[in-house]
Amino acid sequence: MRIRRRRAAALRKSWTQSSETPTVELATIEHPALERLETLLRGEEAATLAFQSVLAALLPMLERVLQREQQAADASLSLAQRETLQEMTETLATAIQMLRGALNERGQQVLRYERPVESGPPERSWWFALSEALEAVEDALQRIPPLVRAQPRSSLSRRVGALLLRLLRQHQRHLLHEAREWIE
């Protein structure tokens, strides 16, 4: 199964010479976690207030991680680093978009009470941008378990939380690998 999503950076317009009408190509991201997330979010339990509340608390954390990873990608030292980090950010952006799509009206109301993600000036130094991204990932990894642990076992909140934790641990491992490579 392929997951299609629109993302401003991934949209490419190609103009045909004859009609001058734009055609839009959708970026396709294949990731097992995204496929599983899509399946989980289709269930009826996604409409419950408990899940919507957890979702509203998860989104700002994930958006902060995404912002920091995008800054690290922008400050990357090589094309290989940039491509890898962009792939990570695209995967996370897709997950965030899917979670936002699962919010119903009650979830939107709860989300309004969450603090917006603060966007500071872009970090120009790759090392500091990488450190900020790693810190954001580790913060989310510490905050998600207590949030979902309060939910009943085998609830949708716990399953989505576990899936997001696996995804963020992959990001953490990669960021640590990048840092180790840079130090050596």
Plain-language structure description:
With 184 residues, this protein is mainly alpha-helical. The protein contains six helices and four strands, in the order ββββαααααα. The chain has helices at residues 32-41, 49-74, 79-102, 105-112, 126-149, 156-183, and strands at 3-5, 12-15, 22-25, 27-29. It has a two-stranded antiparallel sheet with strand order 1-4. The protein has a two-stranded antiparallel ribbon with strand order 2-3. α1 packs parallel to α3 (79-102), α2 runs antiparallel to α3 (79-102) and α2 crosses α4 (105-112). The longest helix is centred in the C-terminal third of the chain and has 28 residues, at 156-183.
Strand content: 5-15%
Total strands: 4
The outline comes out as elongated
Q: Total number of helical segments? A: 6
Helix amount: 55-70%
Q: Provide the spatial order of strands within the biggest beta sheet.
A: 1-4
Largest sheet: 2 strands, antiparallel
Poorly predicted runs are 1-28
**Rg from alpha-carbon coordinates:** 18 Å
Give the gist of this structure.
The protein is mainly alpha-helical.
What is the topology?
Elements (H helix, E strand, L loop, with lengths): L2 E3 L6 E4 L6 E4 L1 E3 L2 H10 L7 H26 L4 H24 L2 H8 L13 H24 L6 H28 L1
Antiparallel strand pairs: 1-4, 2-3
